[in-house]
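Notes to self, Aconitate hydratase, mitochondrial:
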Amino acid sequence: MRPIDLASRSGVALRRAFQTQQLRQAAGSRQYSNITSLPPTYEKLHSKYTEVRRVLGAQRLTLAEKILYSHLDNVEESLLNNTNNGRDIRGKANLKLKPDRVNMQDASAQMALLQFMSCNLPQTAIPASIHCDHLIVGSKGADDDLQAGIQTNHEVFDFLESAAKKYGLDFWAPGAGIIHQTVLENYAIPGLMMLGTDSHSPNAGGLSTITIGVGGADAVEALVGAPWELKAPKVLGVRLTGKLSNWASPKDLILHLAGLLTVRGGTGYIVEYSGPGVETLSCTGMATICNMGAEIGATTSIFPYTEASARYLEATRREQAVKNAAAFQNFPGAGASEDAYFRFKADEGAQYDELIEIDLSKLEPHINGPHTPDLSTPLSQFKSTVQEQKWPEKLSAGLIGSCTNSSYEDMTRVESIVRAAEEAGLKPKADFYVTPGSEQIRATLERDGTLQTFEKAGGIVLSNACGPCIGQWKRQDGVEKGTVNAILTSYNRNFRGRNDGNLDTMNFLASPEIVTAMAYAGSTTFNPVTDSLTTPDGKEFKFPAPHGLEGPKTPFDIGKDVFKVASQPPNPNEKVAISPTSERLALLEPFEPFPNSDLSGLKVLVKVSGKCTTDTISAAGPWLKYKGHLPNISANTLNTAVNAETGEVNVAYDLDGSKHTIPELAKLWKERNQPWLVVAEHNYGEGSAREHAALQPRYLGARIIVCKSFARIHETNLKKQGVVPLTLANEQDYDKIAAGDEVATVGLYDMLQNGGQGEVQLKVTKKGTGEEFWVPVKHQVSKDQAGFILAGSALNLLSKSASV
Ligand code: SF4
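result:
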């Protein structure tokens, strides 16, 4: 079998892999005896890794560091600058990375591709794929929903498909699956570094990759072959012992961790799992845990490569990847020092910045929510918490699956309890929805009878797409907006309005098994571990503890042909499909560069209070359809933000006191050429890696955002779009600034010109009184980012260098 480079299944790199392989075979180098006998991805990885070892000497490295640092463009420059000669890299070094590939979902791919098109290049520098998953509304069931979704969104799908053809990208059509599941099944192999234009991209860390969720502008940097910059993350170790049992599942581990660490606890960290407990987890279970690392704000999460990882690769028909991984880990062979080997695990003695120990044997199921993924309650205390908090006791719907939890193991564990309930004559009392993560998992579950079991029980199988997880859900149960109600999902995120656009829906997160059992009870106070249900013939029924299979007994079924990937070499003659009259797609106009001076005359558009997530700044749901049309989508900007001064949602006041929605006022000010800023509280921009949350304010005239703290991805996204993120040096200054106040920056222009070095202050002039005061602010602008801001956006800079 040939050691083909599995980093790419698409045209150019695939052909290159074949050519390299042919050359090797011609040379007779069939043994893994020298570096050129490794597949190209691993050749490159090993050669960089050797440099990393040379630069860092005997330092013990975590797995995350090994993979990350072995993807540096210039190892020495990144690891030795500003790092105390390599001894103090984490949190200090600016890593300039060359990822192996980029994965994009349809909603974010639109803007990424529109930006890539501005660079006028004939093809992408590295392999990439597009996954049509976010735009299908879940309603009646897979077939109807998919047809309706294709009809409604054909313009966008045509655009994406034509761009894939033109630039040589892999294209996964609507219904083929959700990005993270598809990536895990097809592209993830140990040691890769990938970027994904979606915050749950770290899902692939379950297969020992470093995969980071980014905005489209970051993706474009990688796609044009420019290095992608990241402040070296710290490493948070989670050491697992014991083994999960009974109702506890991998989901419960991450739900529990989210409770411990909160939505901000992982910020600036890679979470790396280790310990004997790791060996007891399935590969897909590890992916679930990594997927939800986004909920604690982690840069990404990663597990070591285990026997379960190899079994998953085999089940997904990637036997060659298993052989390649084994060959790589055994390279360079007898006689080499231990440090010459790249093992897919941490070095013995590697240090973590923080270490948490969890005994899996003691873990009980958890339920997290409502409205935030870190409000974690152990199942045994959930009933009393529901009653104390006066949360609804009626459960309206249970939804399982999605990119987070639709593995064979998840679904067969659910199947075991559904079968038991069916035999007892029970049906779910709440609506019960199932979302397979991909065509491959759907077809396999159908082949093995699992889906039929769900349907027989009354479950509605939705299409292989995001659907209700991203607000694409047409509820069938008559629950109107404004009605307080409770739903349980096995998804990963539960901000207000996330699933059905109803701010009063309380969304709780749990494992698929717990969601399903509680859907049978139709109650949020039911504890399947201890409580019983009454069967139609009056008997007591207690659910057995769930059991399932890690993977199918025979390899996964590939599914229907129509959902197979379209891989193609770039075709320069392909015309990218964008109608000039489209309401959904619009070519981008470059943003104007930074002025040759500090900013002055800015006005505070609104001061927001509480959580201000990327959903708050750029809502999803019905707005997803405008992702490729910046002017149109900007009409949702901050439309669920709370005005700190009045407590009103989506209300802002013009300088003359007239009342507007926030986006209306922003648009008015844009028309008046009135630049503005927003003042906000902590973790501004947490949540999805949604670059629209940076693009839209920029398009409408925002020049700076001032807050108590930022979420990492969003802070970077702002800088890439030319908006300057500043944090208050003294948090109490938040109280002093109000809407309508005038703000000028002092030191900002110098700081930008000095490559991010220097201090910045704000001079605030109060509206009405004219009183002036100074507000010291902090920034995290690197040299490259200073260049982006000065150019007006990262894209302005990239397109300039691409055209040179
Ligand atoms: Fe889709 Fe939800 Fe997964 Fe995001 S988290 S990729 S919306 S299923």
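- The first strand starts at residue 94 and ends at 97.
- DSSP finds 26 helices and 30 strands in the chain.
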